[in-house]
Write a structure and sequence with these properties.
alpha+beta
Amino acid sequence: MTFEVHAQGAVHVFDCFSCAIHRMAPICEHCRVQIIGQGVEADGKWYCGAHCARSDGRVGIVDRV
């Protein structure tokens, strides 16, 4: 069984969630880890969390616990 992911005008077909995550998850601009959970977007760039965003010079970014 396959499923489709529609993103940014393209259709991607996968047969498992892990393949979809590997292909579709954004990469943190600072530490280069794949962002699987919630990330932070600042100025059009994705970060895994506020620490990496601040380390990359973004201001006013905080994690919510």
